[in-house]
Design goal:
Low-confidence stretches: none
Helix content: 55-70%
Strand content: under 5%
Distance between the termini: 76 Å
Number of helices: 3
Order of helices and strands: HHH
Shape: rod-shaped
Radius of gyration: 28 Å
Largest sheet: none
Mean pLDDT: 80
Structural class: mainly alpha
Length: about 110
Amino acid sequence: RRQEAATTPASERRPKKFGGRGTSKAEALPEKLVHFVHRETAGYATWDLQERASWTLREGGRRIRRLRALEKDYEKKMQDEWMQKEMEEFERYKRLGKFDNLPPMT
């Protein structure tokens, strides 16, 4: 199948679809892109596909982990800011006596 793709003209080839229902995780996308570029340039470029694919898999995984950590830190920061605002509002309401007329809890 791969040999056929390399010898068939691009206009007659069926494009591979990415996305939709059967999508995989984001970690696999860089490797899929490398395979796509290799398939499209097979006629006039030579390069070590295995080495390139493993490098992109490692690099993509590293970058995705870093982005997820940044996103997690950002979410934590936003949650802390929200909690701080809630506490300040509570203290302000307490100072204004908004809780003075509440019935006693039994």
